[in-house]
Amino acid sequence: MHDGCSGSFSSGADIVRKLRAMGFNTQTVPTQLHITCEGCNSAFTMETFESTCPECGLIYGVTPCHAHDPAAVLCAGPKV
């Protein structure tokens, strides 16, 4: 996201803030990511770079450079 793929983020909230600032948060990820919510343990499919757990509302984000890897998805919390 304009840092190349070397940009580092300390938290999921940092990722989501950057996604929103760059306008990528609502864009579709290249491959849907199947993740398990760390708050309620529900499985859901992440279709955009910023997604919300449909069960408990926790927000998740992944950078475009790492959107192929479910392990790169980070929880940003209930609000960002």
Q: How would you describe the overall organization of this protein?
A:
This protein is of the alpha+beta class. It has one domain. 14% of the residues lie in helices and 31% in strands. 25% of the residues are buried.
Oligomer state equals single chain
* Helical residue percent band: 10-25%
- Widest sheet, order of strands: 3-4-5
Structural class: alpha+beta
Q: Work out the radius of gyration.
A: 11 Å
User: What would the principal axes of the Cα set say about the shape?
Assistant: globular
Secondary structure elements and pairings:
Layout lengths: L11 H11 L5 E9 L6 E6 L1 E3 L6 E3 L12 E4 L3
Antiparallel strand pairs: 1-2, 3-4, 4-5
Keywords:
single chain, 80 residues, alpha+beta, 1 helix, 5 strands
Offer a concise description of the structure.
The chain has 80 residues and is α+β, with helices and mostly antiparallel strands.
